[in-house]
Amino acid sequence: MSSNPGVEFKGGMYTFMSLKLHTSDKDIIDQELANKVQQAPAFFNNTPVVIDLSVLENLTDGELDASSLIECVKRHNLVPIVASISNKSSQLARSIAIPLIEASTRNSATARDGVNNAESPPEAATESSQNSVEQNVSEAQAIDELSVSQEVEYIVKAPLLVDKPVRSGQQIYARDTDLIIMDQVGPGAEVIADNNIHIYGPLRGRALCGVSGNVSARIFCSSLEAELVSVAGNFRMLETIPEELRGRPAQIWLDKDRLNIEPL
Amino acid sequence: MTKTIVVTSGKGGVGKTTTSASIATGLAHRGFKTVVIDFDVGLRNLDLVMGCERRVVYDLVNLVNQESSLHQTLIKDKRIENLYILPASQTRDKDALTIEGIARVMHKLKKSGFDYIVCDSPAGIEKGAKMALYFADEAIVTTNPEVSSVRDSDRILGILQSESRRSKMNETPVKEHLLITRYNPTRVKDGQMLSVDDIVDLLAIPLLGIIPESSTVLDCSNEGKPVILDDESAAGQAYSDAIDRLLGESKPHRFMETPKKGLLSRLFG
After folding, report:
1. Is it the case that residue A220 has pLDDT exceeding 90?
2. Sheet of A160-162: strands edge to edge?
3. Are A205 and A191 in contact (CB under 8 A)?
4. Using CB atoms and an 8 Å cut-off, which of residues 199-228 of chain A contact chain B?
5. Could you tell me if A165 lies within 8 Å of chain B, comparing CB atoms?
6. Of A231, A230, A226, which is closest to residue A249 (Cα–Cα)?
7. pLDDT digits over B159-194, tens only?
8. Is A171 within 8 Å of A189 (Cβ atoms)?
9. Which of A10, A14, A149, B250 has its CA at a distance of 20 to 30 angstroms from the CA of residue B161?
């Protein structure tokens, strides 16, 4: 048997450009895309894009001809690979021929924006008020809009908190968020998170963070005695953890493809 | 108020039946009306340890299937007032038990004025063990001082937290007690066995007692006499201490040290 498999499925994160449509007016989209592409034709040549329909979804009530909009995007040498939509079963969703991803407004698209804008929240607010053409909004409205826009930008999914020991044979998974354990993780137990894992007690079982591909996720524990630690699929067993790090507070993170373990 | 206590461990052969027999006997001896139920349907051991194997007519499965009455099925202990044994069936298997059926039995026992129902769990984490722990208010987790036994106890604690009636009904969780059996301080000192501190650290539940390893335990089992009745023996005294702690008394733990040496070797050793 060959040791190299022919195919291999792996979870991973890739960066794509997303194209957010603010209007359903094909002529405007056509015109604006033409201008953009003209500025950097090489950059936009056959570039895969994610079509973000979150704004249009709210503007229209199912009357939208989404496929002709996507055709229009294609004419400018962009390759729409997937459409991001908040409700996969809507009328709009059914009219789209390319694959769909369901983007809950809290996590995927806006969370990324949120990170980018985290250092300058006021800017994000001004940007959104510029988009909304009306410059002469009353002050009350402006404040209202600011709080609404901030809410959208900064909603963060609460971490999963466990305040009891995680016993052998138990498995705890924090989807899309951090996992905080206020007690020990027993041998044979498994704690899993899409984001960071914090353990305020001995880690004696297995801890796997960033399981859906988040390479910047970390594991923190107050005593490292783990059977296995893993960040985004890169794992190490206890035998390969240096003796001097065992039984001490430690953090585990991924530096490129290398799993680092460092005392805290 | 009737209290239901399950004696469980995950691993087999660690002393669940010995413990069930002694705990039930100890509670009855203190004046509580107590019944001990053998949940190990198909293997039936408790009646042997309790010395009533010749008096078994009906069993738990008959009672669950409403083929016999409570009065017919319970065996009254000949030594201790207030103590009853509900034996397991040897001819059936664990599939004969249902939650509804057991609930009916538990209800009848409560109506009959029992103070304590002690459930002797079978080994493993399958149906029989889950049935035994389902109705528990308290759990005595029996552990030997070795890694695999501790690991299995950790597993059963997880099951207590997720599959007991109390957890499913979102009531206050089952109260957990750790009972370390077959403890041999000399072998702990030699590093052949885990120490009490290691086990408590690994399982993180309160310690109910430490039963020292002793040949008396086996002798008593063969005789059909719960070891707690042998108040000369260290094991009997240790079980007696555990009963006091179970009833809320605080007592220092004994039998953790290696047997005392002579005065000279203590001075110079």
Report:
1. yes
2. A160-162, A179-181, A197-203, A219-224, A250-255, A258-263
3. yes
4. 204
5. yes
6. A226
7. 999 999 999 999 999 999 999 999 999 999 999 999
8. yes
9. B250
Residue A84 has pLDDT above 90, yes or no: no
Nearest residue to A192 (alpha-carbon basis) of A229, A239, A224, A222: A229
- Interhelix angle A26-39/A66-75, nearest 10 degrees: 20
Average pLDDT, chain A: 77
Question: In this complex, do B155 and A165 lie within 8 Å of one another by their Cβ atoms?
Answer: no
- CA of A205: which chain B residue's CA is closest? B151
Report which residue type is found at A36: K
**Are A220 and A196 spatial neighbours (Cβ–Cβ below 8 Å)?**
yes
Partner residue facing B158 (CB), from A168, A183, A204: A168
In Å, how far from its chain's centre is CA B89?
A: 19
- What is the distance in angstroms between the CA of the first residue and the CA of the last residue of chain B? 53
- A236 burial (CB, 10 Å; 0-12 / 13-18 / 19+) is middle
pLDDT at B214 over 60: yes
> pLDDT tens digit string along B224-259?
999 999 999 999 999 999 999 999 999 999 888 876
Rounded to two decimals, the ipTM of the complex is 0.74
| Residues A146, A151, A139: CA angle, nearest 5 degrees | 15
The predicted model gives B58-74 an average pLDDT of 93
Nearest to A168 among B155, B162, B204 (CB): B155
B26 in Cβ contact with B64 (< 8 Å): no
CB-CB neighbours of A143 under 10 Å = 12
Phi, psi (degrees; rounded to nearest 5) at B177:
-125, 140
Beta strand A234-237 with A171-174 is: unpaired
Which chain A residues are Cβ-neighbours of B159 within 8 angstroms? 169
Residue B200: exposure state from Cβ atoms within 10 A (0-12, 13-18, ≥19)? middle
Average pLDDT score, chain B: 92
In chain A, what residues touch B204 (CB-CB under 8 Å)? Answer: 165, 183-184
**Mutating which of B146, B154, B198, B200 best tests the A interface, going by the most A Cβ atoms within 10 A?**
B154
Q: B205 to chain A nearest CA, in Å?
A: 10
Mutate to test the interface with B, among A167, A171, A190, A225 (most CBs of B within 10 A): A167
Strand, helix or coil for residue B16: helix
**pLDDT per residue as tens digits for the range B69-120:** 999 999 999 999 999 999 998 888 788 899 999 999 999 999 999 999 999 9
Amino acid at A190: E
Q: Please give the Cα distance from A114 to A107 (Å, whole number).
A: 10
As a whole number of angstroms, the distance between CA B251 and CA A198 comes to 37
